[in-house]
Amino acid sequence: MAEHATLRAMTWNIHGAVCRSGRHDLQRAIDLIRQHDPDIVAIQEVEGRGRPGTQPFAMLREALGGHAMEAPTLHAADGCYGHMLVSRWPLEQGVLHDLSVPGREPRTAITARVETPAGPLRLLATHLGLGFRERRMQAARLAAIARATPDPLLALGDFNDWEPHGPVDRAFLGTLPSRTFARTFPVGRPLFALDRIYARPRAALLRSWTDKAAREASDHLPVIAEVAMAEPEGRVTRALVA
Fold it and tell me: Which one, of 158, 224, 155, lies nearest residue 186 by Cα?
């Protein structure tokens, strides 16, 4: 019988690292992420425009794991805005997928593969659009990407899906059979589960939670999850999460 190891995954829309008082404080966001010690973290709304002397993508990469893929979607002379994926392990086979819909804000998905101590894991990180039709098209594209690999897979991000069983859930049906359900937005009184982690296989998601301390750092709460990885026969495992 295969043994199991666990890893910790996290997704958080950091709102440009602007807290509720309107003050920019990227270190506060970094400190909160570090407290949860994720092996994999997807971060949305990384804002480098209008931040003279700072390089938020580089700061997050160096502070949280050293292995990262960036997906800048809006560019300016003084920096860019977008989302990123950071991992404890090297990110292999990384691809940026353009999910943009004409007339809407540019959107991108990151896919990559990590070789964890318990075996390979595929990752998909994204920040979807606000329009219903836009989001439905983007979710269909993501589901096709997810179906293209048989490996265990995590999809993390701000899916902007306000409905309990909206276009993202319907697109992922049968492809990513389990997900988190924590309400994450608006941060003062969370009503909507915009920020999610989807997983395959179904049993991979062991438990998930959020952190109310993030109210002081963003307009979204993060989602953190413990994920089970099947250990190949005969391999000695080590727990990745205490």
Answer: 158
Report helix, strand or coil for 36: helix
Residue 3 makes CB contacts below 8 A (sequence gap 6+) with 231, 235, 237
Quick one: average pLDDT of 202-212? 96
What is the separation, in whole angstroms, between the first and last Cα of the chain?
Answer: 22
What confidence tens digit (pLDDT) does each residue in 55-113 have? 999 999 999 988 999 999 999 988 999 999 999 999 999 999 999 999 999 999 999 99
For residues 228 and 37, what is the distance between their CA atoms, to the nearest angstrom? 16
d(CA 235, CA 2): 9
81 Cβ partners below 8 Å, 6+ apart?
16, 45, 46, 47, 48, 49, 72, 73, 74, 75
Residue type at position 197: I
Cβ–Cβ < 8 Å for 146, 175: yes
Sign, CA dihedral 230-236-240-242, equals positive
191-224 in b/e form (b: 16+ CB < 10 A) is eebbbbbbbbeeebbeebebbeebbebbbbbbbb
Q: Name 100's Cβ contacts closer than 8 Å, sequence gap at least 6.
A: 106, 107, 108
Burial class (CB in 10 A: 0-12, 13-18, 19+), 51: middle
Q: What's the token pair of residue 183?
A: 């309400």
